[in-house]
Design brief:
The complex is a heterodimer of chains A (241) and B (327). Chain A has 241 residues and is of the alpha/beta class. Helices cover 33% and strands 24% of the residues of chain A. Chain A folds into two domains: 1-80 and 163-241, Rossmann fold, CATH 3.40.50.300; 89-159, no CATH class. In chain A, β9 (210-215) and β10 form a beta hairpin. Chain B is mainly alpha-helical and 327 residues long. Chain B is built from 16 helices and two strands. Classes of the chains: A alpha/beta (241), B mainly alpha (327).
Chain lengths: 241, 327
């Protein structure tokens, strides 16, 4: 049985800065993986490599047994990978329902000549993340919590196999964190797997089965959450002691 | 009985075309020729809008494609004796092909880099057409006495109107579809379009082909209407700016805006001739100033102003939201 996601020796440099250095890890089907590391450790760069926002200098990525290292972003999405952004990125001149609509469009020209019409599924998707009252609003009219919900709705719109959530709890109130967490748990029960990057360890802990820690772009450790937070290498990476 | 919104929009276009058909019968003959220029400028402006306005890939070499198509047909018909029914489609094909060959690699670039590549091609074409085989291209003097497909201003008007109307309705229909939404989304954030699972290059290519095709068709017909072609007619920066400014004044990302802008600009330039001091290129200063002020104050152009006025009127009558959905 192939692994859901496997990363082998991924490296990315920007000029003289090594952002990700020979990182390897894997993820099984049915698993939620946490990605931890101090500020600037390379977590978002790793996400960008996984989605081909950046091209890796070396290394390989396998998704469900198939090598996708050279696949462009849109093909990875079509294969079943979808992501959110640390700073929510939306189509600012489009309403919330239009934003979701864009994520449900097939990549087939012959199916794109029809008039723009929002389906019941798209409305249900907005409702499933708690945005039903805001579908005709524009992104700049939303709170950070609602923007995170929109990001999540866009991920779910692809019906992916794996969702990559980058700092999904950043800038949220405790109530919003609980709501988003419940949403993630619910989707997990429905069979969707996640990789979650978060600084909020309290929010992350109940959601993940396993955690991978990176620091200065290098793999540090991986294992169950409780084991990882007591790992000496991890403490050193976070606290320098 | 109230028509569905979609049918009302089509009805609006039919009324517009109907009014335009009547115009030559009610205006002085001298004005008809000006309207022909306006129609062709509208075609060029719409073709610029579908690529540059919608996807945000601002082409500063749009008239490179128009010029290649026009020269293609002019050379074939005048130098090699091709009949117009053969030279014109071949010219359109040559324009489209040249655009694909030279501009497509540029679509992998973004922002200013794309602008630089396109304007560089335009300048190169301007020089090459003078220097390479002037016995065929006519050099700086160009080719005069091109065969016309019809005679008289009114037949030319109806042909230019037909091209403009078909291009406008087709392009407008596309912009109101999911495909048009994708063009618009590429303008806003191309990376997010990729993360939506859409191959952005494919959609940029479609926008480019539409733009080049409409531009080439317009260019070929325009040059046989003029009866002469020179490098300055089609490859000059002035011509490029006229296309861009017509789009911006009228209102980019609307298809209707470029038509309004083309008529506004063409008639403005003609009326400025009345003033002796503005008979020459000085007129361009005036229209550039108008364009600048208008664009700074209202970036959605004249069409945006018209939309706002209608919305205000509708809102007072309690139907503003419905109108906003229609437009």
């Amino acid at each position: 049985m192939p692994k859901l996601l496997e990363v082998r020796g991924l490296t990315k440099t920007f000029g003289g800065v090594v952002a990700v250095n020979d990182v390897s890890f894997h993820m099984e089907k049915g698993e939620v993986l946490g990605l931890m590391g101090p500020n600037g450790s390379g977590k978002t760069t790793l996400f960008n490599l996984l989605m081909r926002t950046f091209k890796p200098d070396s290394g390989q990525i396998f998704f469900r047994g198939e090598e996708i290292t050279n696949y462009p972003t849109y093909r990875r999405v079509q294969k079943g990978m979808a992501r959110t952004f640390q700073i929510p990125r939306t189509f600012h001149e489009m309403t919330i329902i239009e934003n979701i609509h864009m994520s449900t469009r097939p990549d087939k020209i012959t199916k794109l000549f029809g008039e723009v019409k929002f389906s019941d599924e798209e409305r249900q998707l907005a409702a499933s993340v708690g945005l039903e009252a805001n579908i005709y609003k524009y992104p700049n009219q939303l709170t950070m919590g609602d923007l995170r919900r929109l990001e999540l709705a866009k991920v779910l719109a692809h019906n992916p196999k794996i969702g990559l959530l980058d700092e999904i709890f950043a800038g949220l109130t405790l109530k919003e964190i609980n709501e988003i967490s419940e949403l993630i748990k619910k989707k997990r029960e429905e069979g969707l797997d996640f990789i979650i990057v978060s600084h909020d360890l309290r929010a992350l802990a109940p959601l993940v089965d396993r955690v991978v820690v990176i620091s200065f772009g290098e793999y540090v450790a991986d294992g169950p959450y409780e084991e990882i937070v007591n790992n000496e290498k991890v403490k050193e990476a976070y606290f320098g002691c | 009985m109230k028509l569905p919104a979609w049918n009302r929009r089509i009805m609006g276009w039919l009324i517009f075309v109907g009014i335009m058909c009547v115009i030559p019968q009610v205006i002085p003959p001298g004005f008809v020729r000006i309207c022909v220029f306006a129609n062709y400028l509208a075609v060029f402006a719409m073709s610029w809008d579908i690529l540059s306005g919608y996807t945000g890939y601002a082409s500063f070499g749009h008239n490179f494609i128009i010029g290649i198509a026009a020269y293609g047909s002019a050379i074939l018909s005048d130098r090699f004796g091709f009949p117009l029914y053969a030279s014109m489609p071949i010219g359109i094909g040559v324009g489209l092909g040249a655009g694909m060959l030279f501009f497509l690699p540029g679509l992998r670039l973004r922002g200013n880099y794309f602008c630089l590549v396109t304007i560089a091609l335009l300048i190169i074409a301007h020089h090459l057409v003078v220097a390479v085989r002037p016995d065929i291209t006519g050099g700086t003097k160009g080719i005069i006495g091109l065969e016309a497909f019809v005679t008289g201003a009114i037949p030319h008007y109806y042909i230019s109107l037909a091209i403009m109307a078909v291009a406008a309705i087709v392009l407008w229909r596309i912009t109101k579809s999911d495909l048009g939404s994708i063009f618009h989304a590429i303008r806003m954030d191309e990376d997010i379009v990729s993360t939506a699972g859409l191959n952005t290059f494919k959609y940029k290519l479609i926008a480019f082909i539409l733009s080049a095709l409409v531009g080439s068709i317009g260019g070929v017909f325009y040059i046989h209407f003029l009866g002469a072609i020179t490098p300055d007619t089609v490859f000059s920066i002035d011509f490029l700016l006229t296309i861009i400014i017509a789009t911006l004044i009228g209102g980019q990302q609307s298809i209707i805006g470029p038509i309004i802008g083309a008529y506004f600009l063409t008639f403005l330039l003609e009326y400025l001739r009345i003033f002796d001091a503005l008979a020459g290129p000085q007129r361009f200063l005036i229209y550039s100033a108008i364009a600048l002020v208008l664009y700074m104050r209202k970036s959605s152009g004249i069409f945006g102003i018209i939309q706002n006025v209608i919305q205000l009127y509708k809102r007072k009558r309690g139907g503003g939201e419905e109108y906003a959905k229609i437009t």
